[in-house]
Each structure stands twice: as structure tokens, then as C-alpha cells.
Design a protein that fits this description.
This protein has about 575 residues and is an alpha/beta fold. About 50% of the residues lie in helices and about 15% in strands.
Length: about 575
Amino acid sequence: MKQKQPLSNFDLNQKLFCFPLFVGLFCQMDKKCVCCYVDKKSGEIKLKSFNAKNSLFYHAGIPILRGIEFFVFSIISYFQTLKIFAWHRKSINAEKESLDILKKTLLVIGIAILMVIGALFVGWGIFGTLPSKIGFWIFPNNYSPVLKKFCIALVRLALIVLLILTLWFVPKFKALCRFNTAGNITIKGKNFSSLNFFNVVSLALLIDVFVVTLLGLTGNFLLIFLVNIVLFLLASGVSFEICLFQEKKGGLLEKLCMLTSFLFFSPCGKTEKQVANGVIMECELMKNEDRVLLEENDLGHGEVALAFVLADVKNALKKAGIEDFGEAEWLVANVLGVKKLDIRFVKAVTSQEKRKIDMALERRLNHEPIDKIFGFTEFYGLKFKVNKNVLSPRQETELLVENVLKEIEGKKVRVLDLCTGSGAIAISVAKHSQAEVLGVDISESALSIAKFNAENLGANVKFKHSDMFSKLGRNKFDIIVSNPPYIKTNEIELLEKEVKNFDPRIALDGGEDGLYFYRLIASLAPMHLKPKGKLFLEIGFRQGTKLKKLLTENFENIKILKDYEGKQRIVVATKKG
């Protein structure tokens, strides 16, 4: 099972994108949005989710057009976010605060309009007149007009880059860059990303300036203004496609994004990373349609948003080199006492629950399996108690049970489960058929767990303390099933820590070549099988051919079945005679 590859900052299939704010990050997935930001007053990291009016990509499959949509809708979404920050802050005197916010918002808008007008005049002088004079100074009238325009374009590009670099001295802009970097690291695993909001927009700006300068448009001011808008939108579409191509190709081509993305990079700290982790995790949770929108005032005193808790658990597992495969969700769900699928209904955890999660996580970071931490596991739709005295049943063993049940198909038969351990195989067969089932094991500690599981699950299974067939007398069965120890003695220390340190060695050690118990079964099972009785064995994925040879003397119709990953896992054989 492969670990999921990190997403880009944009995912066209999920219609997902993420871009930074001055105080946090904003993420939109189709029409669902999440804001994660640092509250100015309290310094706390807060989450808020809401529904957007517009989907980011209506035409995700149409080049250029999707880039234009990206630019337009991202700007709309950004202002929608500012509106939510302005109107959704609540206090004791909500009416007065709303009025104050309205005044402040109008004031900010007024100042912004004046700044834009001022910037247009300054921009006209700096980016219009100055580059032209420099171009004409370098290339007098006797030079080619195209060469002059090319020079002017380069000067304008240099001035734009210089302007952006000077913004690094503005604290707000630097904060924006830190959140931008945190988003890249969390989503992409790198400081830079081709499909990053600012990378796409800055590249579009450079393309637009270069093209407009080379065209050298003259004439009606309003017409030129409209043409410039159209050209910038087209440049946005082209820029998006270039960045998307770089992202898909990866390698050296993707690294070219640093030619522009360095303009919006600043090393991020712990806070920015927490914000990025929170917003992305909440987006992951919101993929489920039943996920309830999270309001600012949904968290009580001392409560922590589920998204932050899950993100912390996932990051801790990753740092410890433990592949996730949904373990973070399992761990948190078990502590909260809910099913894994129902975690989508959880908004936050209490401080006490958070402490319990941290304690369970600490054990998991020491490579203790989750089922041993919580003392139970699920197998074939049933909940089994497990501890250090029994092997935790694996998913591939469900295939063994499935094949035994196919063989039974409503018949009343006698089934023997050798090396029963937790009783998972015996109980699952008994619960899903009318078979008379006997489970045997050499470990009395394991049998006590098996008996508890049978009683707890209401399964009619008998258990017997026996070293394989030694105490079975002349009992005969229609089916013998077993998942015996099959690891070579000298390979046990090479197993994962979760197995070698927490599963009983007696349930793992299959002797020098791993076939010790299979030899016993091959020679003794025929005496305890009825005529044409069936044998079902789970095996190591490299043991099929050897086991087939062991069984040929007393068994026929020997079949080797593969597991969910295509590896040899089960041997089915029929007693001769």
C-alpha cells in the first residue's frame, strides 16, 4: 500500500487551491472554504469554514480558460474572506462592534482607493516614463524600434522585481510570505511550488508587462485600458498553464519556478506551520459532505479544533518514520470513542481528550501497534480483544476466513482452527456459518483471550489447550484451518518493531526454515480429516511452492491463492482417498 503523494497547491480534480493571507491561509475546495488565521487580540490560531458562491474551476479541463478563472475567482474569494473577517467577529456588544467594523471597513476602502489612484500616477512615472527614457538613452533613434521596446520591457521587469523586493521591509508583506512558504511546505513538502498563487500571478504580471511593452499600444486611453485588462487575463491563463506544466514534469523544470517564486519566500516558523497544517487538514475533513461548517465560536474554553489535533498526530507519525495509512484517524477516533467514519462529525476535542491522545501517540511513536495500545482490533466485521499474548489478526487473514466460508456454504460441518490465538478465525467462521468449531492453542494465555472474545461476541466456539494435534484423540473434522507461525527464526529480528516487539514470539517463530508447523500439519492432519476433508493454510508469500511439495503425499487438488496485493498467501488442499 503506497503512501499518498503530496498535493500541489492546486488540484484540478478536486478543484482545490490554497493561498496566503496577511494573518493566515485560505483554502477553497470546489465551493467549500476554510480560513485558518492568528487572532490579533488573543494570539490564538482559529479555524473557520464556510460555503463559497463560486467554484474555482468551472472549466478545469480547458487550458488558458481555467487559468483566467483561477485568477478571477481567487480574487473574489480573497475579498469574500476579508468580508467574513470583518462581519463575523462577535463580542458582548455585537451591534456596537458591527458598527465600528463598518466604519473601519469604509475607512480602509477609502484609503485603498486613494492609494490606488496615487499608485497609478507614481506607476505611470516610474514604470511608464522612466523605462522609456532609459530605453531611448541606451538605443538612440538610429537603432531598431523593436530593440528599443525590448530594452524598455527589460527595464520595466527589473523595476517590478525591485519593487517587490522592497516590500520585504514591510512587516505585513513579510508575514504574507511566511504563510506562503508554510503552505508550500505543508502541501508540497518544499519551500517553493510551481502552482503557487503568487508564483502564477507574478509570472502573469511579467508576461503581461513584456507583451504590452513590445506591442507599444497607442490611441484612445479607454480602449488601451480595456486591451490591457484582456491581455493581463490572457497572461494569467498562459502563466497558469506554464506553472501546471512545470508541476507535472517535476525535476529541473519545476525548479525553474524559483525564478519568480523567490520574490514571495520567507522562512516560516512554528505558528505559520500550525496554521498551514490546520487549514489543509480541515479541507481534508470537508471532503466528506456530512462535515459540519466550523464557526469561530464553536470552540469552548480549552478546546482544540480537530483539524489541529489530526495534523499534529500525522506530522508526529511522519517524523518517526511510521507510515500513516489512516492511523492518525484511528488513534484519535479510539480515544474519542467514536467510529473512524464518524470522526467527520467531531469539531473539537477537550483538553482532557487531547492529553489522552498525546499519551496514546507517545506509545505509538515507540512503535506499539494501535490495536495493542487500545486493546482491541477489528477483523471480519467483528471487534476482538488483543494483547501482548496474542498475534493481532491481519487483513489478509480475512481472505482465509472468506475461503473457508465459501467451502461451508450453509452445510453443517466440523471445523478445527489450529493455533487459534485470539480466536479471530474460529469465531469469524462460527459467527457466519452453522459450523461446529473447535479452536486449539498451546498458549493458555492466548486461549483465555479467545474464550473472552467468543463469549463477548456470542460465538458458539469450543476451545482446547493442545500442542497442535496432541490432545485431539481420534476427533475428525471436515475442515482444518490454520495460520501457524511461519517466520524463519533468524528473520524475526528483521521484522518491523511493531511485530517483533509486541507480538508473542511463539506466534511468529516457524523454525529454522519457517516450515516446522507445516510439516506437522502435512503429516498429522490426514488422521484428523474426514474423507475428502479440506485443509486451508495461510502461508508466507515465498512458501507456496515448498508447501505444495510437503502436501503432495497426502493431499490432492492443491491450490495456491493470492492475497489483495497479488502475493501467494493461502494454500487449499483436499485429503486423498
